[in-house]
Design goal:
Blueprint lengths: L2 H12 L6 E5 L5 H10 L3 E6 L6 H8 L9 E4 L5 H14 L8 E4 L5 H14 L2 E6 L2 E2 L2 E2 L5 E3 L4 H18 L3 H14 L4 H19 L3 H12 L5 H4 L2 H21 L2 H9 L1 H20 L3 H22 L9 H7 L3 H11 L20 H10 L10 H7 L1 H4 L12 H22 L3 H8 L5
Parallel strand pairs: 1-2, 1-4, 2-3, 4-5
Antiparallel strand pairs: 5-8, 6-7
Helix pairs in contact: 1-2, 4-5, 6-7, 7-8, 8-9, 9-11, 11-13, 12-14, 13-14, 13-21, 14-17, 14-20, 16-17
Protein name: CRISPR-associated protein
InterPro entries: CRISPR-assoc_prot_Cas02710, Csm6_6H
Pfam families: Cas_Cas02710, Csm6_6H
Length: 448
C-alpha cells in the first residue's frame, strides 16, 4: 500500500481533530511524523533531533509535499539522556510560552524505547499532552493502512495513588498549600470517582490554608461550598466535624465584624460563645506550629491566647482592654488602685497604680497589666496562677525574633512558657463550665 492511501485512511480515522502544537522525534522512518503533520495540521512544530537525524524535518516535509517551515523548532538531544530530553522540552515550552501546555502534544511513537520512556516521563513531569500511532502487526511488522491515533492514558490515571499519598502526607503534616496543589492537579487529571474525591480534598485543603492565615471570611465560604455537595467517602466520616467547623467560622466572622463596631465591642468580648471560636483558632494553630517545631510562631499564637483570655475576663468586669474606663471600675471597687499597687510590688514591678494619662483617659491595657488588674479584682481566673509566673514565663517569648527580641526561642523555653498558658486555659474553662476537650476537638483540623 502506498503512502498516500495510508494517509487517506489515517485521516479518516483522525476525523476533524487538529493540534495546535506538535513535538516530534527524528528517526530512520518518516511515515509516522508525516501522517501526524498531514492529519493534525499543527500550527507549530518542534523536532528533537540527533546529529544522525538532522535532515529528518526536510525528509518529512518532502514526503507530504510541503516546504520545510523556517519556524519549525529544532532541538538537538541524545536519546539515551533523559535529562537532555527534559531540558529540550523545557526550551520548547519556553519558546511557546503563549500556549497552554495541554495544547502541546508529544509524539511517543518514533525513536528508541529509551527515547520513548524518556519522552513519556518528561511529558508527564511537564504536564504536556501525549499521542501515539498504533498499528496492527503481522510477523512483528506494522501493517500499512492500519495506523490509528491513540491518546496514551495519563500516568496520573495509573499512578495517581502515589501522588495522592504525597498529598495526604502534606495535608497531615499541615502543609495545606502543597496538599491543595497536588489534590487539584489530581482532580484535573484522573477520571471519576477519584476525581470527585480529590476535588473535595483540594477544597478542604484550601479552606484550612485560608483559616490558618486568618482569612476567615474566605475559609467560611470555602467550607460552605464543600459542604453544599455530598462528601465523598474519605471525608464523609468527618461530616459532623466539618459542619461544626463551618458554623464556628461563621460565628467568628460575626464576632470580628462586631468588634469593629465600638458600641458592640464590650458586649461581644463579654460573650464566651463569641470568644471561643477565635480562641480555638489561635490555640489549635499554635499546636500545629508546635508539631512542626516552629516554636517562635507557636509562642506568638499562644501569647495571643493569653491576651484574649485576659480581654474576655476584663470584659466581664465591664472593662474594654483597648479603651478602658477605669474611673467607673474604681468607683465600684474603692480600694482597687491600692490592691493593684500591691500586686505590682509582689510581681517585682515598679508601682504605677491605675493612673490616667494627662488628658484623663487610660492607655490600652497590655497583657501583663491585664492579669495584674484581674488579680487586683480577685477574678477567679487568677486562683491558679500568680501574675509573677505569667511575667517570668512569658519573658522567653518576649525575646523571640517575632516579638521584641533578635533570636529564636528554644523548645525548653517554649515549653516553660506553655505551662502557664495551659494552667490558665484549664482555669478559664472551669470558670466557663465548658468542656475543654470538646472545644479542642472542634477546632482540631481533620486528617485524611
Amino acid at each position: 500500500m502506498d503512502f498516500n492511501e495510508q494517509l487517506r485512511l489515517f485521516c479518516e480515522r483522525v476525523g476533524d481533530r487538529r493540534a495546535m502544537a506538535l513535538i516530534l522525534t527524528g528517526s530512520g522512518q518518516t511515515d509516522t511524523a508525516a501522517l501526524l503533520l498531514a492529519a493534525l495540521q499543527p500550527q507549530r512544530v518542534a523536532f528533537l533531533l540527533t546529529p544522525e537525524t538532522n535532515t529528518f524535518p526536510e525528509r518529512v516535509a518532502q514526503q507530504i509535499e510541503l516546504s520545510p517551515d523556517p519556524n519549525w523548532l529544532r532541538e538537538e538531544v541524545h536519546y539515551t539522556d533523559i535529562k537532555q530530553v527534559y531540558r529540550a522540552l523545557r526550551t520548547i515550552i519556553g519558546k511557546w510560552s503563549d500556549l497552554p501546555r495541554e495544547q502541546m502534544l508529544v509524539d511517543l511513537t518514533a525513536g528508541t524505547k529509551v527515547m520513548s520512556v524518556g519522552l513519556a516521563k518528561a511529558a508527564y513531569a511537564l504536564d504536556l499532552g501525549t499521542i501515539y500511532i498504533e498499528s496492527d502487526y503481522q510477523q512483528n511488522k506494522p501493517v500499512p493502512g492500519t495506523q490509528r491515533l491513540i491518546d496514551p492514558p495519563d500516568p496520573y490515571e495509573v499512578f495517581g495513588d502515589l501522588e495522592a499519598e504525597e498529598a495526604a502526607r502534606a495535608f497531615n503534616t499541615y502543609d495545606y498549600l502543597s496538599a491543595a496543589r497536588i489534590y487539584a492537579d489530581l482532580a484535573r487529571r484522573v477520571p471519576e470517582p477519584d476525581q470527585v474525591t480529590y476535588a473535595a480534598l483540594a477544597q478542604l485543603a484550601i479552606a484550612y490554608t485560608q483559616w490558618e492565615a486568618f482569612d476567615l471570611q474566605a475559609a467560611a465560604q470555602t467550607l460552605q461550598r464543600l459542604l453544599s455537595k455530598p462528601l465523598p467517602g474519605q471525608l464523609a466520616v468527618h461530616h459532623h466535624t466539618l459542619q461544626a467547623q463551618q458554623a464556628a467560622l461563621a460565628r467568628l466572622v460575626q464576632t470580628i465584624g462586631a468588634m469593629a463596631q465600638p458600641a458592640r465591642a464590650l458586649a461581644t468580648l463579654q460573650d464566651l460563645d463569641a470568644v471561643l471560636p477565635l480562641l480555638g483558632s489561635l490555640h489549635t494553630n499554635a499546636l500545629r506550629r508546635e508539631a512542626q517545631q516552629r516554636y517562635d510562631t507557636a509562642a506568638l499564637l499562644r501569647y495571643r491566647c493569653l491576651e484574649l483570655i485576659s480581654q474576655h475576663r476584663l470584659a466581664t468586669h465591664g472593662v474594654l482592654a483597648e479603651e478602658p474606663d477605669l474611673d467607673t471600675l474604681k468607683k465600684r471597687v474603692p480600694n482597687l488602685d491600692q490592691r493593684y499597687r500591691q500586686i505590682e510590688r509582689a510581681t517585682g514591678l515598679r508601682e504605677r497604680g491605675l493612673q490616667p494619662n494627662r488628658d484623663g483617659t487610660y492607655s490600652s491595657i497590655t497583657l501583663l497589666n491585664g492579669y495584674l488588674l484581674l488579680a487586683a479584682l480577685n477574678d477567679p481566673l487568677m486562683e491558679s496562677v500568680r501574675p509573677l509566673e505569667i511575667r517570668r514565663r512569658s519573658r522567653a517569648r518576649n525575646q523571640s525574633i517575632l516579638a521584641h527580641g533578635f533570636r529564636q526561642i528554644s523548645e525548653a523555653e517554649y515549653r516553660d512558657f506553655v505551662t502557664v498558658v495551659e494552667q490558665l486555659l484549664d482555669q478559664f474553662f472551669a470558670i466557663g463550665q465548658r468542656s475543654r476537650s470538646d472545644w479542642e476537638a472542634l477546632y482540631r483540623f481533620v486528617t485524611v
